[in-house]
Design goal:
The complex is a heterodimer of chains A (about 400) and B (about 550). Chain A is mainly alpha-helical. Chain A is built from 11 helices and 5 strands. Chain A folds into 2 domains: about 270 residues, no CATH class; about 110 residues, no CATH class. Classes of the chains: A mainly alpha (about 400), B alpha+beta (about 550). The interface between A and B is large, with 75 and 74 residues.
């Protein structure tokens, strides 16, 4: 059994490397007019497909090893989302043959997979509420749709970088920088987690629990900047916390999560500033010249098309399958749990997006901003709702 | 109604922007779709006469115009979206955690979240999704759906049915994809037609004019999916009524037989056994994750139950005879179904006392020799127990779930015998004054310190309680039908494309134009394939990408 799990980890690692090398090949296609028939593009897409197959290998070996489809916790879900994003890219690549898409989609998939690996990767048993075939059906469909919707963000991002006038500072250049900075924060999180993991850092706190008649212990894996409210540091020889988190932060283990967020911001900001220092201009302005050969109308269409493909899938997985399962498990197909509410919000948002596309004036840049907001909502539902707004779907 | 006759001879309804038959822009109506300011024609609804754009006099017209606007629809969606997000900031009332100091919303929100929590509560956001204004918002979206769909579907259907192959030159020139070729041979035209047929276009010909069309049915997708949504909204309305929807919750103790609420006394349930299983922390596969968790992880919640149907008793008023109809286990994700009811495993309470046995002995008897025994059955505790040895025990006070309240007085937290305690009056057989004893788990207090007799707990039995919810939902089929129709519509509209290619002969050459509702890339490829090897000009994309 354990051998299978080890094998699956190796597959995931191999897939990660394949995607990385594929990205490199896609970067060689910059500047060549001939889009998809170039050698670099062919190698790039072949490696991507190989990587995808390898990751499928990860998925099924882990499934065999654990006895259930690996979509039951944050690590497994995010890794699957990374795979779905790659699949979304492959689909849209074969429709539109735009190589530059790979140069942005694969790094985002890489970030998602790396982000996944920062969460506990042990094989965990299924609690009774998850013991259902609907787990596989519901979660994989949702994830697939989110992967495809991510491609709409990727196309939108390329569009924005390509089209926004970088000669002067405007609101648009600022928001584009914020978007890029937000992506870099994920990298910051990955860097911070990996670094402190390698150092095997540990600090234990004790703090009063919610009911006020007992205490809980929490283990920090990063130096404590922020301590839990009324927390006492139990570990010797570690950094003393600078401050306690405000009292209103009540989520499970809020102190540790907030501390992790702070470190991610520190590392992410450091990295962003370093990049700015190296290039001496906005990141948007740095990337822009590389995209001059890309056709904005095609990007706009990819953006719309991926929403058109992803939206029905999302409805099916995120609302319909979800309702059927909720009806089987809890006897109510809809319950206004935060996760459900945010699935509805995502659905509302993309419905609004599709309706706005009917109007003149909402193609192009405005659509690209919408695609970006849509991605932010998806990420909010995956990260903030899971880790902060506790509910029935809480993984943490 | 004022009709408009086009130069092609077709009579269009008032408000038409592009002639239904030949597509020629109708001079006086170009402002409606904004065609007067652009080079390209707005093809959204094929320039049909929409009621909302045509009549704007009476109040009905105005309301109709308001709700038929996609912009209004999008605003309603955005408002609903923001409202929904606000409701998820703090838990809704039904999700107030069980470990909260108080589950009373008036206390909980302020206690846990401070001022923002209090504001959240006072604005009624703790029940946001069932508030009147949220309901109205959803209802408005429903109205917008109906009116938007009718306003567009009827004229669009008409126009697409009436369209002719013969189109006005202006119509072609002002399409996004357009080209003009001066000389085209007969053979080339033949090739083009063959290729279009091969690509599964439906071809209509009229005096050498060609209309090639495919995927028209995808145009109906939005209207189909809107019908699905309306059915879902109506089903949600029906579900509010007790005729369509019933939900009850019942606690059933092990060994107990109870009438199932909401079934008109027709069905009874017996709890044979409640089972709670945890994963083995030594489990080879999961031990790392379980160790990290630190607490036991449940693997199964299960109630073994028997369902009985009550038969009409022969004598009215007599106990009904029960007939077994179903026996099985109710587990999470595996409810039990019978007749039109579904019973779900929802909660449990472990180790509730079912009975407790006592004996009386002399206070200073070291051997605690029994002077009489009695048993309290918690399903029907008596107020007096007469013992064979002549003792009489009176239960003066009974606290099923004993705790000391704020004032230090004994009280009961719930009505369930989870931690029972008693104040007992012991009457000795000799008829002397009764003695007072206070008894509970781990407590045996002699109030005066002068008692001659002592009561002790000798034995007890415990059992589990299953929390089960019972549903009967007739609205489900409507939701299912609505969802299926929605999915059909959305797939029809999103995964297929309506493509039209027009060819108009002109002075020995042709005008070529194409329109699609999405995937322009695809239609361009179709045209490339169609003209390959002929001397027909490839279409140019005249789109002005909005900035």
């Amino acid at each position: 059994m354990n051998n299978l799990i080890e094998l699956s980890s190796m597959f995931l690692y191999a897939a990660f490397l394949l995607y990385l090398v594929a990205t490199l090949f896609f970067s060689f296609t910059i500047g060549s007019r001939r889009k998809s028939d170039g050698k670099a593009a062919k190698i790039g897409i072949t490696l991507t497909i190989l990587g995808f197959i390898t990751q499928l290998g990860y998925f099924f070996t882990r499934w065999m090893g654990s006895g259930h489809a690996p979509v039951s916790n944050m690590f497994e879900y995010m890794a699957f989302l990374g795979m779905a994003t790659v699949l979304g890219f492959i689909i849209l690549y074969f429709i539109y043959k735009v190589t530059i898409l790979g140069l942005f989609a694969l790094p985002i998939a890489l970030i998602i997979i790396a982000y996944a690996s920062m969460f506990p990767t042990e094989v965990a048993p299924l609690v009774p509420s998850l013991q259902s075939h609907w787990l596989y059906i519901h979660v994989t469909t949702v994830s697939l749709s989110q992967g495809i919707l991510t491609i709409s963000f990727v196309a939108g991002l390329i569009y924005l970088i390509r089209q926004i006038d970088q000669t002067k500072t405007t609101k648009r250049t600022t928001w584009l920088e914020i978007t890029l900075y937000a992506l870099i924060l994920f990298v910051g999180f990955i860097l911070a987690t990996t670094l402190f993991n390698v150092m095997n850092y540990q600090a234990v706190f004790e703090y009063p629990n919610n009911t006020g008649n007992g205490t809980v212990e929490t283990k920090y894996h990063m130096p404590p900047i922020a301590a839990p409210t009324d927390g006492t540091l139990l570990t010797d020889d570690v950094m003393q916390p600078w401050f306690e988190i405000p009292e209103w932060m009540h989520g499970t283990d809020a102190g540790r999560k907030f501390n992790t967020l702070l470190w991610s911001i520190i590392f992410g900001t450091g990295l962003y500033l370093l990049l700015r220092l190296v290039f001496r201009k906005r990141l948007g302005a740095t990337i822009q010249p590389l995209l001059q050969k890309t056709r904005p109308d095609l990007l706009d269409e990819i953006m719309y098309r991926s929403v058109a493909i992803g939206f029905p899938l999302f409805t099916l997985g995120g609302l319909i399958f979800a309702s059927i399962w909720a009806e089987e498990a809890w006897g109510r197909f809809w319950g206004w749990d935060p996760k459900e509410v945010w699935a509805l919000i995502t659905w509302f948002f993309y419905a609004a997006f599709l309706h706005l596309r009917l109007s003149r004036g909402w193609h192009g840049e405005k659509s690209a901003w919408l695609a970006t907001i849509g991605f932010a909502i998806i990420m909010f539902n995956l990260i903030v709702v899971n880790l902060v707004l506790a509910g029935l779907h809480s993984y943490a | 109604m004022k009709k408009i006759k086009c130069e092609c001879g077709h009579v269009n309804p008032e408000g038409t922007v592009l002639c239904e038959s030949c597509g020629k822009p109708i001079e006086e109506n170009q402002h409606i779709d904004g065609n007067d300011k652009k080079k390209l024609l707005n093809m959204r609804y094929d320039g049909t006469a929409r009621r909302s754009q045509t009549y704007n006099k009476s109040i009905v017209d105005k309301i109709w115009s308001f709700f038929s606007s996609v912009k209004v629809g999008v605003w309603l969606i955005v408002i609903a979206l923001i409202a929904s997000a606000v409701g998820s900031i703090f838990p809704q009332e039904q999700y107030i955690p069980a470990d909260a100091v108080s589950r009373d919303p008036a206390i909980f929100y302020e206690e846990r979240y401070g001022i923002p929590g209090q504001i959240f509560y006072q604005l009624g956001f703790h029940n946001l999704y069932s508030s009147w204004w949220y309901m109205i918002l959803i209802a408005l979206i429903g109205i917008s759906l109906v009116i938007c769909s009718l306003d567009r579907f009827v004229p669009l259907f008409r126009a697409l049915r009436k369209q002719k192959a013969k189109r006005h030159a202006t119509f072609l020139q002002r399409q996004r994809l357009f080209s003009q070729t001066d000389h085209v041979s007969e053979e080339d035209m033949e090739t083009v037609k063959q290729r279009l047929k091969k690509q599964r276009y439906n071809i209509t010909e009229e005096d050498g004019h060609i209309l090639a069309e495919k995927g028209r049915f995808s145009r109906w997708g939005p209207y189909v999916n809107h019908i699905g949504l309306i059915i879902i909204l109506l089903a949600a309305l029906l579900r509010q009524t007790s005729v369509f929807y019933m939900e009850e919750y019942v606690w059933v103790r092990e060994g107990e037989k109870q009438v199932i609420p909401g079934t008109d006394q027709q069905y009874y349930i017996e709890n044979k056994d409640f089972i709670l299983e945890n994963y083995d922390p030594e489990d080879e596969k999961f031990k790392d994750a379980l160790a990290k968790e630190g607490a036991p992880v449940a693997s199964n919640y299960q109630t073994n139950a028997v369902i009985y149907k009550a038969m009409e008793p022969e004598v009215t008023g007599a106990e009904p005879e029960l007939k077994k109809v179903e026996e099985g286990s109710i587990r999470l994700n595996e409810p039990i179904k019978f007749d039109k009811y579904v019973v779900y495993q929802r909660g449990y309470q472990q180790n509730e006392f079912s009975s407790m046995s006592f004996k009386i002995h002399e206070t200073d008897d070291a051997d605690e020799q029994s002077l009489g025994e009695f048993t309290v059955d918690f399903t029907s505790p008596k107020s007096e127990y007469e013992l064979e040895s002549g003792f009489k025990v009176e239960i003066n006070n009974y606290y099923p779930d004993y705790y000391l309240d704020d004032k230090g007085e004994p009280a009961s937290e719930t009505d369930y015998p989870r931690n029972p305690a008693f104040v007992m009056m012991v009457y000795p057989p000799d008829g002397s004054e009764p003695e007072i004893s206070f008894l509970g788990i781990g407590k045996n207090i002699d109030a005066t310190g002068e008692n001659n007799y002592k009561v002790g707990i000798t034995n007890f039995e415990m059992r589990d309680v299953s929390g089960l919810s019972v549903r009967r939902d007739y609205s489900l089929p409507y939701f299912i039908v609505g969802a299926i129709i929605f999915m059909i519509g959305v797939i029809q509209g999103m995964y297929w494309h309506h493509r039209r290619i027009w060819i108009r002969p002109q002075d020995g050459g042709i005008l070529l134009a194409a329109h699609t509702n999405k995937n322009w890339h695809g239609v361009k490829r179709d045209i490339e394939k169609m003209i390959d090897g002929t001397n027909i000009q490839m279409v140019t994309d005249q789109q002005e990408l909005d900035k």
